[in-house]
Structure formats: C-alpha cells, structure tokens
Amino acid sequence: MYLDEYKRWLAADLEDADLKPELSKIEGNDEEIKDRFAVALKFGTAGLRGVLGAGTNRMNIYVVRQATQGLANWVKTQGGSQTVAISYDSRLKSDVFAKTAAGVLAANGIKVRIYDALMPVPALSFATRYYECNAGIMVTASHNPAKYNGYKAYGPDGCQMTDDAAAIVYDEIQKTDVLTGAKYISFAAGVEQGLIRFVGDDCKKALYDAIEARQVRPGLCRTAGLKLVYSPLNGSGLVPVTHVLNDMGITDITIVPEQEYPNGYFTTCSYPNPEIFEALKLGLELATKTGADLMLATDPDADRVGIAMKCPDGSYELVSGNEMGVLLLDYICAGRIEKGTMPANPVAVKSIVSTPLADAVAKHYGVEMRNVLTGFKWIGDQIANLEAAGEVDRFIFGFEESYGYLAGPYVRDKDAVIGSMLICEMAAYYRSIGSSIKQRLEEIYAQYGRYLNKVDSFEFPGLTGMEKMASIMQKLRDEPLTEIGGHKVVKVMDYKKPEETGLPAANVLIYTLENGATVVVRPSGTEPKIKTYFTTLGKTLEEAQAQKDALAAAIEPILK
Which residues form the Alpha-D-phosphohexomutase C-terminal domain (predicted)? Predict the structure, then answer.
C-alpha cells in the first residue's frame, strides 16, 4: 500500500518544488518510503505536527489542504459566521501553509480572516473570538526543532478544538484524498473574491488593550527603571511583546541580535524552547554584559515565556515554570488585594502536574484553585464555564508548569505577551521596593516550605515508539507500583477513570508516597515521549533534590 502511494506521489505534478527531488532521492529505499507513507499524520485536539517533507506522514501543502478540507466540512455544518481566523509563526513554510489553508477555505465558500504578518497563538485565539469565527488555525510547531511544522485547530471560543469536534474533522480528513480531494483556489483569487481578508488594525488594537488592562499596578513601570534583555528566539513575539512593554513604560530593552528577527532555521539553538538553557544562552551572555535586571525569552509561537532573574550577587538564575506560576499568582493576589481590584470569590486554575505550592499560595489569599488535566484547553474550559455562569471576572490566573500563563479571559490559550508584561511589572515592582524576584521567591519558600518540582522525559522515536509507550503505560496499570525508591505508595490516581477523578479521561498516573512526595507519569500529547513529574518537599533545596534523585533512579528502569 505505501509503495503504491509513494509511486502516485512520484508520478503526480506536485506544486511544491521541494517535494519531487526528495521523492526521487528515496527511490528504492524501502525504509525511507515506509517512514513517509506507511501512516498519515493523525489529526487530534492538538491538530497536526510533523517533520517537513513529502508524504502522508510529513507536513506539506497537500497534508495541509487535506486537513483544511476536513475542517471546512465541519465548519459548513456549524451555521454561524462561516468564518475562520488564521495566524502563523516564523517556521519554515508557515506562511505558505497559512495561505494554502486560506485557499481551501475560500474554495469552500468559507470566509477567512488572516494576519498580514506572523503573529502568536494568543493573537489567533483573540481574532477567532473577535470576529465570532467558527474556528481558528495556527500554523506552528511551537518549540520543536526547525525540521518540524504543525497546524493547531481552534474552536469558536478561541480554545483548542474539543475532542468531539476534532474526531469529526478527522473523519472528514480520512474521506478526503490527500492529493486531489481538497477544493482549492489560490490565495490571490480568494482575496479578489472578497472571501479572504486581513485581520484589521481594530482587532490588533483590541488585543493590546485587553492585555494592558490586566496590569496589576498601572503606571508603575514608567518610573521603575527596569533594564531588560529580551529574545523572541527568532519567532513571532518581537512585535507584540515590545509593543506592550513600550506602552507600559519599559523602554530599556536590549534585543538579542542573533535571535531578533524571524528565522525558521533557528540557527542559534537547535531546540527553540525557553525551558532549556541552550535557548537562553545568548540572552544570558548579553544580560551579564549589560547588567540587566531580567532576561526574558518567548518561544516561536509566543505562547510560552521563560526568564532568568538577576540574583543579589550579580549572577543570573533560570526560573522554572512552576516557580514563575507561583510568583505570578502571589504577585497578582497581593497586588489586586492592595489595589482593591480583586473580584469576589476569585478563581485560579492550574494543571494537575503543576506544583502544589500554588494550591498553598491560593489558599493563603482566599483564592479557589482548580486543578485540571494537562493542556491549556482545560484551563480555557474552566474560563468558559465561568463565562457561561456570568462570572468570568472571577478568573484571575491560570498556568502550566511548561511555562504557559494567562491572566485574563480575553483569549483561551496561554499567552507569552501578557506573561512577559506581568513578569516585567513584577520585577519592576520588587525593584522599586528594594527587593527582587529572587528575594520574593526565597520568602515564599520560607513561608510555605521548600517544594521542588522536576520533569524528566524518555524518548521513544520511530514507528514503534507509540506502541512501546502504550505497553509501558499498560504494564504500570496491570502491575501497580507498591513502592518507589523505598517509599510506600499510599495512593494511585488513574486519570483513565473519570468516575474517580471527576475529570475527563486522560492517560495519566499519579502516585502519592508516604513521605508526601508525588510522581506523575504521562505520555506527551505532542511528542513521542513519556514524561515523569516529581514533587518533593524538604527543609532545604538539597534535601528536596536528594529525594527527587532517589525517586528518578527508581523510576528510570521501568520506563526503558
């Protein structure tokens, strides 16, 4: 079957000039052909994600057309505005894929609102809501290496598509021939016919206004003298992040020159992920040189932000997503109480794999903390529930340990633009009172205990990787762990059992140990990895780290 499909592609008159040479090069190489054609990229609630190239198991204009035809078939059953919003980041072919998707939608009589230049995930979520669209498309592979691209689908609420809708779209995709099944007109024809229009300045301004309205202490940054180094990691964050920071009065911003402008090859770091040191290395060097108070980096689609804070001795320390989530929650709560802007019965939301330290902080300030499944759409879902009840203003903050933050209901996905704004405002505030982010973090640990949260991951590449991951998870269910690292397991939560968790089913296991530590095991939703999350609590960092190391050593052989 896969050889027949390969030959069909090889014989076709392919519009993308990069594809035919690749197909010719692998002629006679069964392994390479199989890798590209034995399976198709699966469309799920995270959309599509894959390596760029030729074939059904690669990201290319034909796979994008097929996916968009499936989406169009679903949109046509939805009534409403019959409009789809589109945005894209700096990845290779992102603009091509975005315009290709627009051409398919227009050919199906569906109106399109597309950004005239790369813009991040939050901008797509906002435009989807602003124009009352049926759906949204974001062309990105987030923080994956340069050889990847992807296609995220959003529902009318600006949240990533629901499981039910994604299943319908997937069924429609499977009915659509990848090379010939999608209706298509050129982008130019769609514009001429009035079906494709650009996102207006009114929408862009409304997004910036919505973000800036969430300042905790408006005006503070104009006089705080904060000195910042910022890297958009060659992605889509440069324009929106600097726009908002300039508006709030932060003007001493040094951009990392090698990472300033869009570059889908990400030549300065193989993995443009603000969670990892290599991505922040150039920024840290520049921060040291300029004496910046803060170094900040957003990922290519600018939905996540990582930072390094200046310590009293002049060195810089990376702040984890869990630590920043706790710091922002603490800052927002204290600041809004002080300013009298805290709503009645405030609600914060975090994922089940994020630090329990946030629960303790929320309790201290009288905030209800809701814990949801991993994936920011579940945080968006909680905001939607509040909105449906006419109580959307109760939502003050949501976060995931993987550097995703949101502090308002104006979008339904994580937003590195508001994350950057609030981190800078927080840094400026602590600077203005003679303190620092580092000092505040130490005060939080002194008050609540030394929580340590660490994530390890195990990769399972290739066609057999998913099967191997599934068998490991199944074995953990068939043969439950009774102890980890010498500590007795006192409770196992299996999130495949919604009747026990009260949440939708998910492939997650959480082990609670007799010493209070927790170990979470879950396969990634977007990469061939099993992730393990460790939470330990010690009197000192060293004690908490020693506990984590012992637990990790005990878990590792099980996940090989």
Answer: 506-549
Q: Which helix (H) or strand (E) holds 186?
A: none
Find how far residue 153's CA is from the centre of its chain: 13
Q: Report whether 309 contacts 427 (CB < 8 A).
A: yes
The whole model's pTM is what?
A: 0.95
Q: Amino acid identity, residue 149?
A: N
Is the Cα dihedral 102, 106, 109, 115 positive or negative? positive
- Taking the C-alpha atoms of residue 258 and residue 232, their distance in angstroms, rounded to an integer, is 10
- Tell me whether strands 83-88 and 148-154 are parallel, antiparallel or unpaired: unpaired
pLDDT score, position 464:
84
Give the separation between CA 527 and CA 461, rounded to whole angstroms: 9
Residue ranges in 264-311 assigned as alpha helix (H)? 277-290
Inter-residue contact 437 to 323 (CB < 8 Å): no
Rg of the chain (C-alpha set): 24
Domains in the chain, CATH or no CATH each: 1-199 (3.40.120.10), 208-448 (3.40.120.10), 450-558 (3.30.310.50)
> How would DSSP label each residue in 211-227?
HHTT-SSTTTHHHH---
Amino acid symbol at 242: T
Is 142 tagged catalytic? yes
Q: Which two tokens stand for residue 181?
A: 């099944």
HSE on the CB side for 228, CA within 13 Å?
A: 28
Element (H, E) at 233: none
Given a cut of 50, the residues of the chain with pLDDT beneath it are none
- The strand pair at 135-139 and 148-154 is best described as antiparallel
> What's the farthest any 2 CA atoms get from each other in the chain?
71
- The tokens describing 92, both together, are 């290779």
Indicate the helix (H) or strand (E) that contains 429: helix 416-432
- 415 close to 439: Cβ distance less than 8 angstroms: no
Angle between helices 437-448 and 416-432 (to 10 degrees): 90
Nearest Cα neighbor of 141 from 266, 14, 277, 324 is 266
Give the pLDDT of residue 79: 97
DSSP labels for 99-140?
HHHHHHHHHTT-EEEE-SS---HHHHHHHHHHTT-SEEEEE-
List strands edge to edge, sheet with 395-400. Answer: 368-372, 347-351, 395-400, 404-406
Options 87, 90, 125, 142, the catalytic residue: 142
Q: What are the pLDDT digits (tens) for 277-292? A: 999 999 999 999 999 9
Strand, coil or helix: 534: strand
Cα torsion 159, 164, 168, 170: sign? positive
Q: 505: which DSSP letter?
A: -
> Which is nearest to 249 in space by CA: 269, 290, 219, 227?
219
So what's the pLDDT on residue 560?
A: 82
DSSP states of 335-389: HHHHHT-PPSS-EEEEETTS-THHHHHHHHTTPEEEEE-SSHHHHHHHHHHHHHT
Task: Tell me the C-alpha distance between 134 and 128, whole Å.
Answer: 8
